[in-house]
Write a structure and sequence with these properties.
Largest sheet: none
CATH topology of one domain: Lysozyme
Order of helices and strands: HHHHHHHHHH
Radius of gyration: 39 Å
Length: 204
């Protein structure tokens, strides 16, 4: 009687298991015992994406537009024409030469810093500005008028030491007032300056 009862219970359990659906082999590990079910669930579960992982990157359209606008304003140089003309006349530098130097040096951008510490529109070093009589801080050379004033004074001396020629002036301005021999860098610089000077001459 006991054997029949056990057999009946086993059959009933088997039928219940079949009715509950197929049993996946990976849901029980005999070596892990009861923990096998939990381990497999953890391994097979898919980690949900969070809001941060699916969030789109913000658009850079506004930044690009701002850069384009800044570049357009820089290339024109009209914002500094009055200051350039004022100090060029004051120190005896041809206005076209002054414009061309600023164009090549900084493209009319007042906040540019060179690889050797040159600052601003005319890319003048603080030590050079102090040689020209400047007594302020390096930060002060970012001011357009201050930069043009002392940069133009240095350019005027280069113009005088260079014999008034374009390339002679550029050599002294680019390589230093003591420079005597044209070098490839200053030569390329002079070529660019000549191109910009020619573009400023009104056509007849």
């Amino acid at each position: 009687m006991t054997k029949i009862t056990v057999f009946t219970a086993a059959v009933a359990a088997a039928m219940l298991a079949i009715a509950s659906g197929p049993v996946k082999a990976d849901r029980f590990d005999p070596q892990l015992g009861g923990r096998g079910l939990l381990v497999k669930k953890a391994e097979n579960s898919e980690t949900p994406r969070t809001a941060a992982s699916t969030r789109a990157k913000p658009s850079t359209g506004k930044k690009r537009s701002a850069r384009k606008a800044g570049k357009a304003a820089a290339v024109s140089g009209t914002s500094y024409s009055t200051l350039i003309s004022k100090y060029a006349a004051s120190y005896g530098v041809p206005v076209s030469l002054a414009h061309a130097v600023i164009k090549v040096e900084s493209n009319y951008r007042p906040n540019v810093v060179g690889s050797s510490g040159e600052i601003g529109l005319m890319q003048i070093k603080p030590s050079t500005a102090r040689m020209m009589g400047y007594s302020g801080s390096s930060k002060g050379l970012f001011n357009p008028e201050t930069n043009i004033k002392y940069g133009m004074k240095y350019l005027a001396m280069a113009h005088s030491l260079g014999g008034g020629t374009t390339c002679g002036t550029i050599l002294k301005y680019n390589a230093g007032h003591a420079a005597k021999r044209m070098n490839p860098v200053s030569s390329a610089y002079c070529s660019k300056v000549k191109v910009h000077m020619a573009s400023l001459v009104p056509s007849s």
